[in-house]
Amino acid sequence: MEKTIQSAKIISGLIITAVILLSVFFKGYTSExxxxxxxxxxxxxxxxxxxxxxxxxxxxxxxxxxxxxLMAYQEVSISSELNRKVVAVHAKEGKFVNAGTLLFKxxxxxxxxxxxxxxxxxKLVLLNERRLKDxxxxxxxxQQDYDQAFTNLKVLQAKIEQLKVMIAKTSIRAPFSGYLxxxxxxxxAFVTPGSPxxxxxxxxxxxxxxxxxxKHANTLKTGDEVQYNVESNDKIYKGRIVAxxxxxxxxxxTLLMRAVTDNKGGTLLPGQSARLTLxxxxxxxxxxxxxxxxxxxxxxxxxxxxxxxxxxxxSIEVGERSAxxxxxxxxxxxxxxxxxxxxxxxxxxxxxQLVSIK
Length: 358
Known about the structure:
This protein is α+β, with helices and mostly antiparallel strands. It is 23% helix and 41% strand. Strands 2-9-12-11-10-13 form a six-stranded antiparallel β-barrel. The longest helix is centred in the N-terminal third of the chain and has 29 residues, at 2-30. It is elongated and about 185 Å long.
């Protein structure tokens, strides 16, 4: 009986052992396989991040802005040449008058009376001259008497012409066509030489005087077009250079130039300030670099350029500059890529990483 019980225990132990082994076997078979090791992440590129810009040829108009003053093409203060009383005022304030229009009439009564007296004397002297001339032809008078009579006639005639000039000056006329300003005298006033009677202005055209620096004294020529604007409106006007001074102003080292512009509509007035835009040159293949790309130094300017993933350092020469860009005249070529940001972190030859490019 004991043997039977012992045998049964042995069999039970064997069965339990078999079950455990089978369980371990199947668990190992059905478990997930380990994931393969991931490869090491690729090494990220190193270098200073920068922005770049590819240079290309552009059309560039180099211009300069200067200030000028509008002036009447012709302007004169009408005045008298004689000490006379005004007997008539024909001038109308603020009106347009043609050349030769009578504006003021001065008293000439005494001059006319004197002229009539001289004309009567002329008749007598002329008769005497003709009588002696006839006697000379017949050899009945001496040449000296005739010469004296002829001279007296010419002197009297000269006095008559002189008096006619004086009488003509009592009629004050417009020397050219233009607009009259304010009339300063009225009928009955006594005027003297130089007394301002009225201002006559020709505004059909206007003159503009302006000064240019010594650097551009030989750039602008007679006949060149200028553009300008005034404070009273936003319109752009045009004019042409007609003259300039023979030399520079010794104090300011500038050259005074004069342009003329049409003013048919009369919208512009003498005395207005004008802001002129002067075209200095027109370049068809200019290279323009943003101002922020420039690196100033005591020797001039430099820029960083992209050179095979590294920062190259180039010295340049510049010309005219605006608020946003500068004209590079030497040191760069079309197709070069310049660096426009993060320059303070760069050194010549340092690695870079282009973030954006224009």
